[in-house]
Write a sequence for this structure.
């Protein structure tokens, strides 16, 4: 082994034997600990600190190979730490690990010298791979640096370093032709040394960048004004391996001059050519482009997002103002899409959205912009319109293309859409106003039957303001105590008595009179007022139940409907139990009614909260059972007491018709799982008798009573108790079994 090879081996061996030093900088101890456990291994020294100041203190006194650095730190930020590293010429590699979604921070980190930018939460394999790659590059750089120091006096050693460099190193003659280029050009570009030596530099420069590359590749200066980090695209060899590829490099170059014997560095020195280094930054550029794309596009459909859409809309409006054209904005919302998510799951819903986006993209013009606003909402920018009616033609095309069914995971789905259209300049002179008016028109379509399109009109704006006004009035209704509770009895047919009451909210509006929940509950959920309304209903229902119990009406239970959104609030369970305790009620006297689609949400969290209620004695009922996704697994896993047969199944019961197999299945499931069963919406004697024969004893509906105020409930309850009256109802009707059946209260 000659001296050169032996030296190379010794130096490399020394570097490899050194432990890999890693510094983890994060203000969250748990995050530091988890990263420490993930990355620890033989021949690795891992240090931790929780602030930028501590990180700089460690780096001042220790040579670190790699720093895993968070952007947001107490005191100075991660970006400041990186700037310190750059200013002190530290060779430490930096991987940014942050939950910061700001695109500018990511790009700034990469441009500031970070080798990678990883968003939290990160993939464990990806983190390990990127750390291993960074340490490998760091190890190679240490080897390179050490050998440069040891072998700088040897031409052979110098050539070895040049050939081992991860960068392209070259020299050009005075005409711009390659005199030397290292072997890295072959691995990066596919050209051999013999192919390039003697060729002009333009042979490898992308045609689009030749003008700017000329200043770098033929640089004559060698002072501080010499070319540094100029980005240039280089062409790869046309062979199969490198076909149609380009790489991006940063070029640093300086002039080479014949030195005078007296060391004079005057301009009289003869120019010999240019020496340069080109570093491959293709992966970094791809990372920057990916981050930029993600900032301006929807991650699911890859369509432009609302930010990019608004930018393009404002540009189109400026151009339309100059050329006198029109700009159309379509606001599109899929009809009943929430039902797809609730019934089949979010994975199927996402796939359906992707398929819808693909169809919509194919039916708009090349110059149009299709964007996803969020959820199941899309917008379409229609520039350069001659007439407003042209937007209607495209809307009809969209509705037509959605008619064919979508195949999602082996199932057919049909999607319709409601489309609102606003046109610049007649419907608004700003992007925000146009989008708002198109949205208003879309909601008008929703209210008038869906699966259609409408152009915005000023009259629609009045309806929009009415909705805003209604929301404000709803807020006032809470503070002004404008709500009332009505109660609908639940009747045991075998026991011939009232066994429970369902509390139903009404709004005594000062102008519109008594409003049922269908007219304001959805608005309450959208505006975040549902919690206050639920608290009022719980308190009023429990208070009323306590008053009835004081006069001896204690053999009853009361049920209260609860919005699925309530289960997302951490204090919801405490609020229920608190109201029951406050009014001294037995916990089993209160029943919470939930909709079936709640069971499709976060199963572990929902089960825990439902189990908490059950452990406190509160009964749980599934309302509208059978209309969603009634999995047997839900009945087995979820701690429920009662299922209510939805009135849509009861309504189908009529003389001369076959009883629905679904009804048989629901009653069989209740019996099999030992659950209480209630049928709602009973309106005829035939329905009563059929349900009773099938095994359902407890019912509610207009056959017995419509929802009535508390004062009327008291009279009904007292008349139904022994000792008060043998007739608790206002009238009876004999059934075929001879049982006395209440016929309900008059309107």
């Amino acid at each position: 082994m000659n001296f050169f090879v032996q030296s190379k081996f010794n130096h490399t061996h020394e570097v490899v034997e050194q432990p890999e030093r890693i510094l983890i900088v994060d203000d969250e101890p748990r995050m530091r600990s988890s990263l420490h456990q993930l990355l620890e291994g033989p021949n690795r020294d891992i240090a931790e600190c929780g602030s930028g100041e501590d990180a700089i203190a460690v780096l001042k006194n220790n040579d670190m190979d790699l720093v895993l650095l968070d952007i947001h730190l107490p005191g100075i930020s991660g970006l400041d730490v990186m700037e310190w590293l750059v200013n002190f010429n530290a060779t430490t590699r930096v991987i940014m690990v942050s939950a910061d979604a700001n695109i500018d921070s990511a790009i700034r980190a990469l441009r500031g010298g970070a080798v990678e930018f990883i968003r939290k939460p990160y993939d464990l394999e990806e983190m390990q791979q990127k750390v291993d790659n960074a340490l490998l590059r760091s190890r190679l750089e240490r080897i390179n640096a050490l050998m440069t120091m040891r072998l700088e006096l040897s031409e052979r050693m110098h050539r070895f370093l040049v050939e081992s460099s991860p960068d392209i190193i070259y020299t050009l003659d005075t005409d711009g032709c390659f005199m030397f280029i290292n072997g890295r050009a072959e691995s990066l570009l596919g050209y051999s040394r013999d192919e390039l030596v003697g060729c002009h530099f333009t042979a490898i420069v992308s045609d689009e960048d030749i003008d700017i590359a000329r200043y770098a590749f033929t640089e004559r200066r060698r002072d501080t004004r010499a070319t540094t980090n100029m980005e240039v695209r280089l062409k790869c060899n046309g062979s199969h391996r490198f076909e149609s590829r380009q790489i991006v490099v940063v070029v640093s170059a300086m002039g080479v001059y014949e030195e005078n014997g007296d060391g004079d560095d005057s301009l009289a020195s003869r120019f010999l050519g240019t020496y340069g280094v080109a570093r491959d930054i293709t992966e970094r550029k791809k990372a920057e482009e990916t981050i930029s794309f993600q900032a301006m596009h929807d991650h699911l459909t890859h369509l432009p997002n609302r930010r990019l859409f608004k930018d393009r809309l404002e540009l189109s409006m400026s151009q339309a103002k100059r050329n006198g054209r029109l700009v159309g904005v379509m606001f599109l919302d899929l009809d009943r899409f929430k039902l797809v998510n609730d019934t089949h799951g979010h994975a199927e819903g996402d796939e359906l959205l992707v398929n819808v986006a693909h169809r919509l993209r194919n039916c708009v013009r090349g110059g149009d912009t299709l964007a996803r606003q969020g959820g199941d909402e899309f917008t379409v920018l229609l520039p350069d319109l001659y007439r407003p009616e042209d937007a209607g033609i495209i809307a009809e095309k969209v509705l037509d293309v959605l008619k064919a069914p979508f195949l999602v995971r082996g199932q057919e789905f049909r999607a319709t859409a409601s489309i609102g259209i606003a046109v610049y300049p007649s419907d608004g002179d700003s992007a925000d106003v146009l989008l708002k008016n198109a949205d208003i028109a879309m909601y008008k379509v929703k209210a008038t039957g869906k699966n259609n399109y409408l152009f915005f009109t000023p009259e629609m704006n009045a309806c929009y303001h009415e909705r805003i006004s209604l929301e404000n009035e709803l807020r006032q209704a809470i503070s002004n105590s404008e709500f009332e509770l009505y109660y609908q009895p639940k009747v045991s047919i075998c026991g011939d008595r009232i066994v429970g009451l369902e509390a139903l909210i009404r709004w005594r509006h000062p102008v519109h009179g008594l409003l049922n929940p269908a007219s304001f509950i959805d608005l309450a959920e959208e505006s975040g007022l549902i919690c206050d309304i639920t608290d009022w209903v719980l308190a009023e229902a429990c208070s009323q139940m306590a008053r009835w119990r004081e006069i001896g009406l204690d053999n009853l239970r009361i049920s209260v409907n609860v919005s699925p959104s309530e289960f997302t609030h951490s204090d919801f369970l405490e609020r229920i139990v608190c109201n029951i305790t406050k009014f001294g009620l037995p916990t089993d006297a209160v029943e919470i009614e939930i909709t079936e689609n709640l069971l499709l949400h976060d199963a572990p969290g929902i089960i825990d909260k439902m189990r908490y209620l059950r452990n406190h004695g509160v009964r749980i009922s599934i309302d509208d059972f059978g209309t969603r996704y009634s999995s047997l697994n839900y009945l087995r896993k979820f701690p429920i007491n009662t299922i209510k047969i939805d009135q849509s199944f009861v309504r189908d019961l009529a003389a001369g018709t076959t009883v629905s197999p679904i009804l048989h299945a629901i009653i069989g499931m209740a019996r099999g799982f030992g659950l209480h069963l209630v049928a709602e919406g009973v309106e005829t004697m035939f329905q009563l008798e059929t349900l009773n024969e099938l095994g359902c004893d407890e019912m509610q509906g207009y056959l017995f009573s419509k929802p009535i105020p508390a004062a009327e409930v008291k009279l009904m309850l007292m008349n139904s108790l022994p000792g008060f009256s043998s007739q608790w109802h206002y009238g009876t009707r004999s059934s075929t079994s001879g049982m006395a059946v209440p016929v309900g209260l008059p309107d």
The longest strand covers residues 497-509. The radius of gyration is 37 Å. DSSP finds 26 helices and 29 strands in the chain. Residues 1-9, 721-747 have pLDDT under 50 and may be disordered.
